[in-house]
Specification:
- The structure holds 3 protein chains of 3 kinds.
- Chain A is mainly α.
- Chain A contains 6 helices and no strands.
- In chain A, helix 1 packs antiparallel against helix 2.
- The radius of gyration of chain A is 22 Å and the shape is globular.
- Chain A starts with a helix and ends in a 19-residue tail after the last helix.
- Chain B has one domain: Helix Hairpins (Orthogonal Bundle).
- By secondary structure, chain B is mainly alpha-helical.
- Chain C has one domain.
- Chain C is built from 12 helices and 2 strands.
- A two-stranded antiparallel ribbon of chain C has the order 1-2.
- The chains are: A mainly alpha, B mainly alpha, C mainly alpha.
- At the A-B interface, helix 1, helix 2, helix 3, helix 4 and helix 5 of A face helix 1, helix 2 and helix 3 of B.
């Protein structure tokens, strides 16, 4: 049963990743990315990381990709026109990818990883993750919070129209899109 | 028969490779960005697979941080794209070549 | 078949049958309640008190001509109503609807998916509802639809934050994400809306915005955007959007009731741990959800609509700081020991 679920969602992830990379329309590529993220979230669940899987759907697929869609619609991006066919760049990239995968496949054939211990209720529990996050990893957690604050301020400043004041005064009410 | 962890590692390598090909060959800036997100996702899968293999939760915690950093990076990157688009009316990376020699 | 799988399927079937009837019932309730508020009779021709009106509407939807705009993006246009139903019919799996039932020597908790990450799963699945709006608006190839869908999705992701933080505040004294633990905590202490009244108000307002209901329905405003993101959808496709909207409302009401009003429990009454207790629990939950839905209808026909900038300002500048304030207050109260220890 677990093998079946793995194969279905691995195939789904690979297929939608190919669509993300190859499709001409940015909107279709973004929606395929959502599918890839959801399939990967299911794979996380299979690997005994339910919190990370659910968080991936909530944060990545539910917010970040929506941001992508907004920008695509705001900039009204059209389908990529294919003026030139597959050039030397594409063949070089494909060759590199195939070599990389071949090398890794060979490596895994040589070295057999031992079977991991079976998942217990304790190892997937949220309590353990939370005690690690707020115990040993408290400093990175706080720094990431600061990073997000900096990113919010930076994004607001970077996307302003040139000449726009930092905040709207009471008289002018901006009717947004 | 449970799925060996090396299959997850191969899958994430494949996703990473697909993302790299996309980042290297697309002309549209947003599509390059999507491929980068795909690569980050593949790295997340590798981290969780190793967390499972070594029976440590550290991998999952790192994924937590990678998720937050990816969100920050997406926000700032997209804001920059909007700013560039306003100036140059294109995000075709072949045409954004002011600093080329 | 694995008995646990069988039990899960039966529980899902029960919840599904309940939630699929929400849309027709709400159709009738909405029209009669709106008529009552506006001092007119409402539908009263089709059956006694117009009770068969939803049946007539369903027949109309099924037999109406299905028009697809020629310039619409076909795959996305066809997928959008289907995707709208996905969060509607998956989010209620984490809501407990009764006490643990003892059948044949086994104890079965009455939650379809009693996962460790309970509420988070609900929020994650609910956050996917943005995509149906975006796809519908983009694929319709219509300026008004696109505008409506962009507004709706911006509104949804803005109010999602305030909603999530007020939900987190409820979970602090419970120290668990599972909704069955939240209900058990409320049974041992007081219903959460009393110590967390601020959080409850934020949750209430954010849930109106999350379901695109007045006073936050600018995205489907009839006088301004034709019908917003579902302008180009007729007959059965519109019925699917309609169904998804009401089911989302019911699921979010069920979540609110479980978090703040004790869910399936009644104060002081211990339900028996068998099928009858389960049914009583389900009936209590549904009574509370029905009251919430009536409130949704009441508010819709009473208040005027928010303008878009007022809506965004409210979401980011008022509700988000208030929900964070609530979080800090609840954390302080828990540290001070007022919200009490409890045994799972």
């Amino acid at each position: 049963m677990e093998t079946l679920i793995f194969f279905i969602f691995a195939a789904l992830a690979l297929g939608s990743a190919l669509v993300v990379v190859a499709h001409k329309s940015p909107v279709y590529a973004t929606l395929s990315l959502v599918l890839t993220l959801v399939s990967t979230a299911v794979l996380f669940l299979l690997l005994g990381a339910p919190f990370v899987g659910v968080l991936q759907v909530l944060v990545y697929a539910g917010a970040i990709v929506v941001l992508f869609l907004f920008v695509i619609m705001l900039l009204n991006l059209q389908k990529e026109g294919s003026a030139e066919g597959p050039g030397a760049q594409l063949w070089a990239a494909l060759l590199g990818a195939v070599l990389f995968l071949g090398m890794l496949g060979l490596a895994f054939r040589r070295v057999a990883l031992p079977a991991p211990p079976p998942l217990t209720a304790e190892s997937v529990s949220l309590k353990g993750l939370a005690s690690d996050l707020f115990g040993e990893y408290l400093l990175p957690f706080e720094i990431v919070g600061l990073l997000l604050l900096v990113a919010v301020i930076g994004a607001t400043v970077a996307a302003r129209r040139p000449g726009e004041p930092a905040s709207l005064s009471e008289n002018e009410e901006e009717i947004a899109p | 028969m449970s799925v060996p962890v090396s299959w997850y590692l191969l899958l994430s390598a494949a996703l990473f490779a697909i993302g790299t090909v996309g980042a290297l060959t697309r002309r549209n800036g947003i599509s390059i960005f999507l491929s980068i997100e795909l690569m980050l996702n593949a790295a997340n899968l590798t981290l969780v697979a190793y967390a499972r293999q070594l029976d440590q939760r550290t991998g999952q915690l790192i994924v937590f941080f990678v998720l937050a950093v990816a969100a920050a990076e997406a926000a700032v990157g997209l804001a920059l794209f909007i700013a560039v688009f306003r100036q140059r009316h294109t995000i075709d990376v072949n045409r954004l070549n002011l600093m080329r020699w | 078949m694995n008995p646990e799988l069988a039990a899960t399927l039966v529980k899902y079937a029960v919840m599904f049958l309940v939630f699929i009837n929400v849309a027709p019932i709400m159709n009738w309730v909405e029209r009669r309640a709106c008529a009552f508020i506006q001092d007119r009779p409402g539908p009263n021709r089709v059956g006694p008190f117009g009770l068969f009106q939803p049946v007539a509407d369903a027949l109309k939807f099924m037999f109406k001509e299905d028009v697809t705009p020629s310039a619409a993006d076909r795959p996305l246009y066809l997928m959008a109503p289907a995707i709208a139903l996905v969060p509607a019919f998956t989010t209620f799996v984490v809501i407990p609807f009764g006490p643990d039932v003892q059948i044949g020597g086994r104890t079965i908790p009455l939650v379809v998916a009693n996962v460790d990450t309970g509420v988070l799963l609900f929020l994650a699945l609910a956050s996917l509802s943005v995509y149906s709006l975006v796809m519908a608006g983009y694929a319709s190839n219509n300026k008004f639809s696109l505008l409506g869908s962009i507004r709706a999705s911006a509104q949804l992701i803005s109010y999602e934050l305030a909603l999530t933080i007020s939900v987190l505040a409820v979970l602090i004294p419970v120290a668990s994400f599972r909704l069955s633990d939240v209900v058990a905590y409320q049974q041992q202490h007081v219903w959460s809306f009393i110590p967390q009244i601020l959080g409850f108000l934020v949750f209430l307002i954010a849930s109106f915005a999350e379901t695109n209901r007045l006073p936050f329905d600018l995205s489907e405003a009839e006088s301004e955007l034709i019908a917003g993101f579902h302008t180009e959808y007729g007959s059965m496709r519109f019925a699917l959007f309609f169904q998804a909207e009401y089911t989302n409302m019911a699921a979010l009401s069920a979540l609110g009731v479980t978090l703040y009003f004790g869910g399936w429990t009644l104060p002081g009454i211990d339900f028996p741990h068998n099928v009858w207790g389960g049914l009583l629990g389900l009936a209590t939950l549904l009574a509370k959800v029905a009251f919430c839905m009536l409130m949704y209808v009441w508010v819709r026909w009473t208040f005027p609509r928010f303008r878009y900038d007022q809506l965004m300002r409210l979401g980011w500048k008022v509700l988000l700081p208030l929900s964070i304030l609530n979080l800090i207050l609840v954390a302080a109260m828990t540290l001070a020991g007022w919200l009490g220890p409890w045994k799972p």
